[in-house]
């Protein structure tokens, strides 16, 4: 532990470290001589007892564990049969200024033998010479060891490996940074090889980093590399202290043949799917492009890419192929194949499974909740098959245990249909689990489980009027709700979207900020006793949809680019919302929520590049034009 000697003072006639000690030694010597003369007459036994007396004997020794900012000082102390009361090392940056101290890690005791002592010192300056000595004191005096010195170690260079650029087919320029840390860099080179962790080659940095204190960018250009090969490399530098290695990174040289990247299939349905991939021509015109596919072997079938004129550039080009007439509930495998004048490449193999004709289910939030009753809700997509059974299973444990049949079976088709069941005899303030079970000729499907809680017994809230009855699809409209038993409302439902943004609340009126939404919805007030029953007076209608972004906002004139449109006021599902690019409709529209939809872009009008206005339409209402609602077709 370090302590600083802030000055000198006299304390009960004892001198502090740093004061002359000759008068103490003289006084101790005289006392010792007097005692010795007195003992001459006491016999040899008394003389033997005196032999170990006097100030401690101190030896300063060489340091241990010397590092950049720390050291362990060492020495030895013989207490000479008198308890050592002080033991510390004095040190400083000059021999005449040992102003800092570090206490010995333990006391030498009061014995008659030499005891090794040490002290750990930290917080030193790198590459600095320090002087030190050991000091000890007992009841008979104090002693200093001889002055020794040491020099702290310098800092190793700082080394960072950076991305290689540019990378060609047979060449690459390696890049990195070296910080000399104020010590001349005597070596600077890059190690590289084709096996991770093994570096078979070495190339010197194009220029030396010097001896400064700031990072210096270094380079080295490799030539004669193999095409389409992954190389691993790192930068290495040495200064007067140590050799340092940068982190390992890698690059892949460009191929001569085209690059074929197989991408996951999209729009997978019962009997159809869209295959996707990217072709990089690598500066040679693409002569052929196709997908190989099959259910048993990928070489069973081949279908050409829909895009023509892929060109001869060096940028990836998106390609697609539509498959139809597939078998239901079947796994298929496929891969992309492309050819230019330099060769043929085959992309990695991927797979997809067509959809079975079992219903799709989505459990919805229960409505008309009270202390004992609830209406259980769900949506079912029959997948073009007749539904033979539909029921809600519910209970207070994962075993469920109770069942309520749907009021009506959803009709055959490929659209989601609302189903419900009213249940009674529930326990107040109790949490229930619920799921919907539907069956058709192909099998049974269960929705995920959801939970709901019943309310306390009491008067249910009622809604008799709301104002205004219209608002923007992105929310934010202040709505006043009139009715009864509205005090202490815990939330307000706009359709299936709940908000707790209630700005005022009385028994017969409350004010709430509408959340984002779509279409015409019931405004339902929730209190601790239950929910208000929907009626024609609580309906709120959201305005036209709003588009806030199209991503990606550019693609090929041939169409087929998968884009995601975000905004407000979209009808979830695959039927309620349509999108047009200028006047051409997008395909495969699927809205996962009221704020996000995915789709495939149509081909550009007359195959011309340029910007297209993107419009969303819901319930006959079209979104407004904006700079965010646009898509750029590129050749």
In short:
By secondary structure, the protein is mainly beta.
Q: What do these coordinates show?
A:
The chain has 635 residues and is mainly beta. It has six domains: 2-151, Immunoglobulins (Immunoglobulin-like, Sandwich); 158-252, Immunoglobulins (Immunoglobulin-like); 259-353, Immunoglobulins (Immunoglobulin-like, Sandwich); 360-453, Immunoglobulins (Immunoglobulin-like), CATH 2.60.40; 462-542, Immunoglobulins (Immunoglobulin-like, Sandwich), CATH 2.60.40; 546-634, Immunoglobulin-like (Sandwich), CATH 2.60.40.10. The chain is 4% helix and 48% strand. Strands 1, 6, 7, 9, 10 and 11 form a six-stranded antiparallel β-sheet that branches. Strands 37, 39, 40, 43, 44 and 45 form a six-stranded mixed β-sheet that branches. Strands 47, 49, 50, 53, 54 and 55 form a six-stranded mixed β-sheet that branches. A hairpin with a 2-residue loop joins β25 (331-340) and β26 (343-346). The longest helix has 19 residues, at 22-40. The protein starts with a strand and ends with a strand.
């Amino acid at each position: 532990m370090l302590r600083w000697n802030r000055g000198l003072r006299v304390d009960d006639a004892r001198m502090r470290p740093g004061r002359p000690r000759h008068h103490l030694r003289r006084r101790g010597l005289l006392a010792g001589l007097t005692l010795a003369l007195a003992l001459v007459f006491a016999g040899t036994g008394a003389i033997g007892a005196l032999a170990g007396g006097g100030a401690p004997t101190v030896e300063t020794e060489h340091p241990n564990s010397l590092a950049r900012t720390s050291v362990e000082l060492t020495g030895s102390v013989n207490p000479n049969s008198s308890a050592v009361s002080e033991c510390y090392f004095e040190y400083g940056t000059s021999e005449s200024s040992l102003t800092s101290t570090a206490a010995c890690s333990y006391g030498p005791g009061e014995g008659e033998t030499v005891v090794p002592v040490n002290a750990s010192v930290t917080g030193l300056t790198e590459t600095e010479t320090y002087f030190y000595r050991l000091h000890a004191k007992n009841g008979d005096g104090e002693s200093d060891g001889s002055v020794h010195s040491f020099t702290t170690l310098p800092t190793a260079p700082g080394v960072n490996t950076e991305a290689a650029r540019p990378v060609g087919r047979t060449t690459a320029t390696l890049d990195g940074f070296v910080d000399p840390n104020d010590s001349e860099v005597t070596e600077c080179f890059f190690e590289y090889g084709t096996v991770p962790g093994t570096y078979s080659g070495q190339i010197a940095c194009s220029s030396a980093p010097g001896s400064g204190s700031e990072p210096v960018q270094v380079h080295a250009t490799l030539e004669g590399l193999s095409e389409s090969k992954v190389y691993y490399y790192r930068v290495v530098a040495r200064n007067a202290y140590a050799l340092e290695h940068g982190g390992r990174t890698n690059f892949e040289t460009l191929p001569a043949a085209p690059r074929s990247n197989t991408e996951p299939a999209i729009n997978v349905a019962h009997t159809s799917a869209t295959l996707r991939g990217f072709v990089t021509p690598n500066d040679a015109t693409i002569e052929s492009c196709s997908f190989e596919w099959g259910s048993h072997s990928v070489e069973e079938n081949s279908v050409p890419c829909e895009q023509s004129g892929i060109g001869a550039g060096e940028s990836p080009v998106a390609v697609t192929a539509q498959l139809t007439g597939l078998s239901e509930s079947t796994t298929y495998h496929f891969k992309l194949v492309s050819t230019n004048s330099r060769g043929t490449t085959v992309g990695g193999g991927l797979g997809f499974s067509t959809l079975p004709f079992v219903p799709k289910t989505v459990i919805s939030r229960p409505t008309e909740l009270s202390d004992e009753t609830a209406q259980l809700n769900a949506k079912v997509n029959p997948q073009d098959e007749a539904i033979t059974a539909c029921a809600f299973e519910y209970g207070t444990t994962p075993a469920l245990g109770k069942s309520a049949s749907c009021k009506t079976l959803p009709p055959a088709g490929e659209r989601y249909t609302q189903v419900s069941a009213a249940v009674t005899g529930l326990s107040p303030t109790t949490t229930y689990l619920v799921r919907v079970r539907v069956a058709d000729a192909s099998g049974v499907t269960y929705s995920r489980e959801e939970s709901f809680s019943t309310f306390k017994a009491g008067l249910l809230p009622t809604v008799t009027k709301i104002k205004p009855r219209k608002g923007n699809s992105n929310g934010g409209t202040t709505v006043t709700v009139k009715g009864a038993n509205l005090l202490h409302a815990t939330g307000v439902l706009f359709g299936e979207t709940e908000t707790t943004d209630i700005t005022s609340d009385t028994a017969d009126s409350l004010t709430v900020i509408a959340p984002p939404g779509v279409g015409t919805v019931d405004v339902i007030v929730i209190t601790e006793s239950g929910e208000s029953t929907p009626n024609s007076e609580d309906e709120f209608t959201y305005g036209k949809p709003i588009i806030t972004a199209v991503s990606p906002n550019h693609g090929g004139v041939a169409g087929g680019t998968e884009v995601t449109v975000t905004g407000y006021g979209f009808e979830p599902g695959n039927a309620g919302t349509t999108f047009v690019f200028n006047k051409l409709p997008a395909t495969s529209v699927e809205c996962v929520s009221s704020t996000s939809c995915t789709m495939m872009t149509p081909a550009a009008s007359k195959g011309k590049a340029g910007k297209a206005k993107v419009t969303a339409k819901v319930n006959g209402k079209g979104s407004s034009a904006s700079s965010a609602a646009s898509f750029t077709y590129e050749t």
